[in-house]
Design goal:
Layout (H helix, E strand, L loop, with lengths): L1 E9 L8 H14 L16 E3 L8 E11 L5 H11 L4 E9 L6 H4 L2 E7 L1 E2 L5 H9 L5 E4 L7 E4 L4 E8 L2 E7 L8 H11 L3 E2 L6 E10 L2 E3 L4 H4 L2
Parallel strand pairs: 3-12
Antiparallel strand pairs: 1-3, 1-4, 2-3, 5-10, 5-12, 6-11, 7-8, 9-10, 12-13
Helix pairs in contact: 1-2
Amino acid sequence: MMLIRTEYAKLKPVRYISHLELMDTFRRAMRRAGLPVAYTQGYNPHIKLSLGQPLAVGMTGKTEYFDLGLVEKIPTKEFKVRLNKFLPDFLKINKAKYVSSDIKSLQAVINTAVYQISLELEGELDQKKTINQFVNLSEIRIVRKRRNKEDRVLDLKPMIYNVEFVKPGVWDFTVSTGSSGNVRPSELIRALAERYKEIKEVPLVNVVRKRLFVRKDKKLYRPFVKRVVRR
């Protein structure tokens, strides 16, 4: 079996489909495109498809990823064209590359995300000064709401690597994601709103996940690079 690692975009018109619906959409498109996909064994075989960190409903993603098993190698350009032909508008393949079939999964290696948040501001606020104050706080504690579990007090500070001013009301946040430490965009928004009266809470439709990275030794790598995909 061969493994092809694929970068795609999930844009506004499809931002309300869930992670499971997204996987079903990809599977249907793959079958219709006649791709030589690999299947699992057993009574209920399914396409060997593995997506990266789930994107919350309502959010868009510019560079999302999935791994797909193939039983026959086809050119990456052909793979991209054939699959895009059967995907809905605003869900498009950007890039594909063959990787070793025994490397770690995307969810195991991707640990950093860049979220762009369009804020709602009231009154005067020196945004660059506020960003500087925010990133230099000794701790950024929030209460994490958990379904069917007790709420948990969490310090976001060690998991926020950078905050960048893009333009008035639009900031980029580089944060930890995944099982080793996950910062939710809704928690970033709430943390800001709790500390600065000029910043109001906004819905997830105001959030774009711009990038997903593998962070090693404080350096950020795309999931395609040799340092990530080598065995």
